[in-house]
Amino acid sequence: TINDVITGIIFLGTRLYMEDTREEAKNATSTALVLLNTRSIGGYKSVNEMVQNQEAQVQWGNQFGFLHVSLPKLNQYDQCLNPLKFVQETQDIIKRKRNSSAVFLTGMLLESVRKYRGPEATAEYIHQTLLNSSMTVSNMIGPVEKMTLANQPVKGLYFMVVNVPQSLTVTIMSYMDQLRVAVGTEKGLIDPAKFRKCIEKAFNITYNTAIMAK
């Protein structure tokens, strides 16, 4: 999917930043926590429909699972960087883990913890899981039609997860057939301008390589 491709390019940009910042980062292990929506959505419903329909109320709230994805290392792709191979490797890892039962078992575990131990215990479990990863990648499908807020048209839309223990947070959201990527970095640890250049470089070299491969 397009989100997997973008995730792979972001992983590539992250690796470029790591290696450009510290020499020892070439062999460093970095793990991303990829959040996946596990809600079954058959279509959009109005608030009144969801309130009146008791069966539909199970759709309220977040239902998600997560999987840990290790960032591939650049030096495993010979002397010359092959961005397409890097992105394909990332896609294969995400696809393999997404199709496993681990995602749904994780969702069931979170729901069980919430039901029997409460939301605070669930939040603590998620926080401990976040501590075991270097970055977070989350994506969601946004509205396909133009939105208004207080009768003002919304030109663009994105979201960001805050107060997480990771040093890097990436969110991907579509809105009116346009994709927007937002990046949050830890202040004092990651240079946002330099990281942005590495992400742009990853997009450019991947695009140019794909064009030349046709």
Automatic annotation (TrEMBL):
Any Gene Ontology biological process: triglyceride biosynthetic process
GO molecular function: O-acyltransferase activity
Source species of the chain: Ambrosia artemisiifolia (Common ragweed)
Residues in O-acyltransferase WSD1 C-terminal domain copies: 60-204
Protein name listed in UniProt: O-acyltransferase WSD1 C-terminal domain-containing protein
Assigned GO CC terms: plasma membrane
Pfam families the UniProt entry points to: WS_DGAT_C
Xref: InterPro entries: O-acyltransferase_WSD1-like, O-acyltransferase_WSD1_C
